[in-house]
Amino acid sequence: MDYRRALFLMILTLLPSVGSFALCEEDARKRVYDHLIIRDHHAAVLEAKKAHVLFPESKLVQLALIDALCQSGEETEAWTRWEQIATHHPETKQDRRVLEMLAWGVLNKGESSTQLGIRFNSLLGAAFTHDAKAIPLLLEQLRSSNAMLRSIAIRIAAGFGDAPLKDEIARLLTSEKVWYVRLEVIQAVGALRMEELKPELKEIIGNPKTLAEEKVAAIIALVSMYDAVESAELLTLLKSERAGLRQLGCEVVTHLNLKEELSHLLPLLKDGSPDVRISALNTLALMRVQALAGRRIEELLLPLIDDPVPEVAITACYAMLLVDARAGEAHFQKWLSSENSQWRRLASAAIAVSGKYGVALAFKGMRESDDPYVRVNLALGLIGQRHQVKMASDVLFEVFKEHQGTLWMWDNQYNPLFRSLAPSRVKHIEPVPHYPIVVDQLVRLDLLSVLSIVRYPKAQEAVKAFLQAQGWGVTGVAAATLLQEGDDEALEAVRALLNDGDEKIRVQAAMIMAIVGSDPSAVHVLQEAYLHVDREMKIHILEAVAHVGDPHSIPFLLEILKEPFQVLRVVAASALIQCIYH
What is the pTM of this model? Predict the structure, then answer.
């Protein structure tokens, strides 16, 4: 009995010490996070290491230390300590918060890197979290001295829409000097519907020194903000002394389908600016206007069909084709046989978007023209109407195969409604390496998607030839557009190549399936190839894995965080976050 009483008294004596131990441990952990709240990362790490000495077995203290290391940018030490804790607490390998913490540690370190690629991927990785923690990083890159980082940050910020980001975008609208960054700013203003900036957008549109691309972007941004418009405001636009604002007025009429305001377009058909005449004609064509101010539309179009500016005349022919197919066909003939290749291609692009009204003319022109670009434009129009699909597909396949060495682009410089295949005039730009080649890949992938959508028998052969001709890494900006208009069946031509004997084709196909189709079946092909490809290709593979966002890729990505190359760790961290949030 005395023994039991002594044991009971000893337990009572120890209880306060156990409570004090727990309190001290929590106190130490709290001190670490107090430093992190005020962003004193160095002090947080010191406190965490002291706490770890006092409580070496405490999981909470160890996690606090890892968190402090991650936020201070000491990612490699954080990783080492996480591996140690994971041996005693295996559940941390599945802990979403801990995995995210490790990924953020890599991204935080990458943010301060002097290497552009690392900072770029850190920015993307932070953005994919859709977390408030990304906002300070975005703000910093919106103010970056590097134009490429600013342009990417603007595009990402448009998807967040937080007030501090909007304020920075508003500042950039008036202060940004680099043209492609200004384009991103204008597009972001439209995407965020920042109506308070309408005056600034109108100033951009009305300024005669504004680049054509910027003016178009500003018009699109402004039009997207209009849910309604007062008649007086519309008249102010249509009668403005500035040609750009008159164009805007035409776009607003089309956007809001303002049939009651169409009579105000009559003077614009004789406007001194060719761009305004084109905008007015586009509005009349898209709204299928049969009469204007008591006059038949054919009567109004006839003078414009002989307009001295070819792009205006071709637009008038397009409008005529929609109301009187026979008359429109007759006027189009001279443009399809023009000695000037630009006008032949523009005319064929106009016919291609005229729907059923241009089918007969497209079929005739596709058979008779010697210009491969004209034939492709007309073939696309026929396929769109599901008319003579076999013959039109043969034309696409033939031109695609015979012109592998020529860089292509989509050209709509004369009229935004008419997109024509054309030899590339694209110049290099800073944000995208090898930009003319990337644009050419986009165009060719568009054409391949059309062949796949209509189940052309040689579609897989065309895709395979394309992948063989390209260098490693047909991913990202190029592959993202492949088959974007088709359903899952349109991807079959690519999916079948996942088992091809040629590793290059197999991996290229896997990347396309990953990026376009988010197909998990492509991931194992990519992971197998990762071990024996060069560093640049490893980056492309990690980007493709990120697009799929398959949680089963997490163990693979965690292994990549051991890589000695920071750029690979950053891309893997970005992918890891996307898999966690999938």
Answer: 0.73
